[in-house]
Design goal:
Blueprint: H1 6-10, E1 17-19, H2 26-30, E2 37-42, H3 47-60, E3 67-72, E4 77-80, H4 86-89, H5 92-98, E5 102-104, E6 112-114, E7 118-126, H6 132-146, E8 152-154, E9 160-162, E10 166-169, E11 171-175, E12 179-187, H7 192-198, E13 206-208, H8 221-224, H9 230-245, E14 251-254, H10 265-273, H11 275-278, E15 285-295, E16 298-309, E17 312-319, H12 327-337, H13 344-357, H14 362-378
Helix pairs in contact: 3-10, 6-9, 12-13, 13-14
Bound molecules: ligand LAQ.
Residues 79, 105, 109-114, 118, 120, 167, 169-172, 183-185, 187, 195, 199, 213-216, 218 line the site of the ligand Nc1ncnc2c1ncn2[C@@H]1O[C@H](COP(=O)(O)OC(=O)CCCC[C@@H]2CCSS2)[C@@H](O)[C@H]1O.
Amino acid sequence: MIVKTLSNLHTQSQSCFRCLRAKSTLSAVIDETVNSGLILKSMSTDVFENLALEDWIHDHVDLQTRSILFLWRNAPAVVIGRHQNPWQECNLQAMRQKGIPLARRRSGGGTVFHDLGNVNLTFFSSKKKYDRHRNLQVVTSALKGLRPDLDVRATERFDILLNGHHKISGTAAKLGRTAAYHHCTLLCSTDRVLLSAVLKPTCQGIHSNATQSVPSPVKNLLDEDPTLDADTIMEAIASQYNTEFGFSSPITNVDPSDELLLPGIQKMAHELLAWEWIFGKTPNFRICTTFEMKDGTSICNVTLNMDIKKGIIEYCHIDVPSDWLPMELSQEFSSHLIGGKCCPYEMSVLAAELLRTASRNKELGRKMYNLCKKVIFMM
Ligand SMILES: Nc1ncnc2c1ncn2[C@@H]1O[C@H](COP(=O)(O)OC(=O)CCCC[C@@H]2CCSS2)[C@@H](O)[C@H]1O
């Protein structure tokens, strides 16, 4: 197994790839890169492992004297900003159906879709050296170096647009006390149909102060030039990063699940996977919505009011005309949901409990069942 210290790695040629393996921790290896740069590329396509590696670098590496560029790609995933509401941003039902995970990152900003056709770039530096314009310049210059005819420009809100109209990159950042990172996406050959399908919110009537995404028309770089590919683009960006900052770092492959190299990283990944982080960190919100219920030929309008704090239903009132469903049944349903997580699995258990115990005739049982299904489907 090859064990490389950074000083070894610096002697390698630009295009050379190296794998870090655990002999020393990554921070010990990185300690040898004082006053220079390091380019890391993830060997994982797991969104939680990759976000955990960002956290690990931010928390464990002294970024006062060194800068790092981290290149990574994920299997299909939706990534929301730190202060967003997933029910407001994405189609959770479609994501569950397709097995697409939802991740909440630690940086602010809007919701994006990732797949292997999307490249993520994280620029770590001291807070003093944090410069999003310069980082995006690295990306646009690298693209122009590859294809001089490409019209790619960074905007004032740090998107990158293709031909002045289509977004190919979105930016977010996290500023710590002394260190910072700026990360951005780059659409190379992402599944745009899937992107639109999963970023279409389904839950109506949400009132919240959560950060809202800014939807834009998107395009892939490969739609513009099919001879490009994600690996060539990543190599060009790595090379331009070295040129721009005067470094000579090769690309070093890192396995973000390697606990020996990155002590504590698995705990960090688990924190990012927890319901309490992904859904529980949603800013408090209210759902006020009206929907139609049918039972044979009888139709009625149902009004739902819910207050959700830390992802938990704190208040619930389901208003159903009493000639359609006796008030005590709708009230029983409402009070049964209070204290539960706004989560279809937990709600299904609560609803099943209620449907089992509440005594009623066949017609009322059917109406209650359909009402439960409708409410659970919104989660
Ligand atoms: N992958 C990707 N790249 C660029 N733009 C996208 C992408 N997915 C969706 N979108 C479009 O951007 C808006 C949201 O734009 P908005 O400006 O609201 O948010 C962002 O751009 C956030 C970028 C976060 C980058 C991080 C880097 C590593 S982890 S995620 C969305 O509604 C779509 O129209």
